[in-house]
Amino acid sequence: MIFFQRGGGLPRGFFFPALMLLVCPLWGISDLELLRQADSLASYMDTDFSAEYTIIQEKPGQGRTKTVAGVFRRDARETYVIVIMEPVISKGQGYLKQGKTLWFYDPESRRFNSTSSQERFQNTNARNSDFTRSTLAHDYRIVSGGDAMLGRLKCRLLSLEAVTNGMTYPKMKIWISEDGLVRKTEDYSLSGQLLRTSAVADYYRIGNRYIPKQILLVDALRGAVINGAFINERTQISINKPSFRKVADSVFSKTFLETVTH
User: Of 76, 99, 149, 216, which one is least surrounded by beta carbons within 10 A?
Assistant: First the structure.
């Protein structure tokens, strides 16, 4: 587990393991080109993607909860399906994203309800928008950029502002390492209030594609005072069994969610 200090900063002595990637340094390109490359490494436009996500939510004073979900993405069609497998009380719940429309399926009522990409995923610190392809270069404009160290990694730190009102976070800061991979983000409100910090310590490499092994999300506002110290809520997402095999077309449908657990 990676622990953050209050306010979302990285603790003293924290470092990311180096990735053995045969890529050239990126500082010779513009910040916009760098952001576009970061998007491309986090999106799979030429193939389907599926994996098992284990999501551990920690609420100070309340303990941990565990959610396991199957995630299926077809980025070229801007669609995904998520099926909840654990806990038992939530088993069979699901999400279907088709373009800008996102549906939540409740197996008890057998009804689909429209929801938002900005909503919390299963009441964790993750948002529904965290499970789709990356479109930062399209959704944000770069306000500023500069070199920065993140532990032992040399990064480019970009400050971003959303170009539309539909983004989950109006402002962001993003750390991109020399290999073009996103290592840390800070999400802000329109007024500049820090809302959430995320970090990716390591990636799988499958061919020329990269998938985060774990993503740590720390809520800057939600938490509890324990023994006189404020402890932030946090969510750790572990991505297991990643695959780029083709997913059946029938998976990306309401019918699949209605029948997958029956």
Answer: 99
Provide the domain count of the chain.
Answer: 1
Per the structure block, which two tokens stand in for 243? 């695959």
| Distance in angstroms (rounded) separating the CA atoms of residues 52 and 216 | 16
pLDDT per residue as tens digits for the range 236-261: 999 999 999 999 999 999 999 999 86
Within a domain: residue 21?
no
Distance from C-alpha of 206 to C-alpha of 109, rounded to nearest angstrom = 40
Residue 132 covered by a domain: yes
Per-residue pLDDT tens for 86-115? 999 999 999 999 988 999 999 999 999 999
What pLDDT score does 25 carry? 46
User: How many whole angstroms separate alpha carbon 103 and alpha carbon 116?
Assistant: 8
Is the pTM higher than 0.70? The answer reads yes
| Residue matched to tokens 């059946």 | 248
Q: Please, are residues 53 and 231 in contact by the beta-carbon 8 Å criterion?
A: no
CATH number at residue 83: 2.50.20.10
Q: 66 pairs with which residues across the strands?
A: 56
User: Distance from first CA to last CA of the chain, Å, rounded?
Assistant: 36
